[in-house]
């Protein structure tokens, strides 16, 4: 069941993981139980009606409908959306790219609400955990939004996923990826793994760095939406639905041209996404070896401790 889904535990020492856990979560003021249940009913109504309206809406109007749905979902979750466009004159309206224009959208990963927040800016396809397509209800939504599944426990399949992203970009699609490969609490973050950036390099596609933050009523970054540690979806969803005064802030930084080096492109995007923020847990550097069309961490370098298991194979 979707409401029992937890972050997948690492199956090998270089699988994406983070040290964030329940100790990172700082609760906000809460709404009443009745208000929380009303929010939940609103989300359920949107989720159940989305497939019907997607099929019934003309193709030319479908993108606008999906954006409206995502914004309505944020409101039902008790979040206000704030979009900041730092790209100057690149676009007259806040969106990732013009219709039919390919772009690779790159953001840090905090929780399941990230997908809704990015879709509220402009509908995109996502690279997401493979088991999502099997979840009740949400699996159907994943199929409708053409999610590209990735099995994090099978590193050998990563080049194929990168190839799928490249083919979608070559066809003029907008694809969103979370290169950290796992979720962090919102006040800490990991390094951006270079593998997915190869798809942008292979297709000459510009990359849109997105700074995604959840703020409390005072404008301070909050960790309520973090889907970390032993969280189940039900626990995380209840925490979000009960919280009051949250704002999800999407900052669109200037586009990054792909260049020829995925590691250098990843570093440029990391600088754009992080700004002056410092990670609560620090960011560990990694050593990389080649694996087909991707790079993975060399597991022979040493095993991470349980308190700092931030090394990944992405």
Automatic annotation (TrEMBL):
Chain spans, region Disordered: 294-314
Pathway: Lipid metabolism
Swiss-Prot/TrEMBL keywords: Acyltransferase, Lipid biosynthesis, Lipid metabolism, Membrane, Transferase, Transmembrane, Transmembrane helix
Source domain of life: Bacteria
Keyword Zinc set for record: no
SMART domains assigned: PlsC
TM segment ranges: 36-59
Domain Phospholipid/glycerol acyltransferase: 103-215
GO MF, any single term: acyltransferase activity
Protein name as it appears in the record: Lysophospholipid acyltransferase family protein
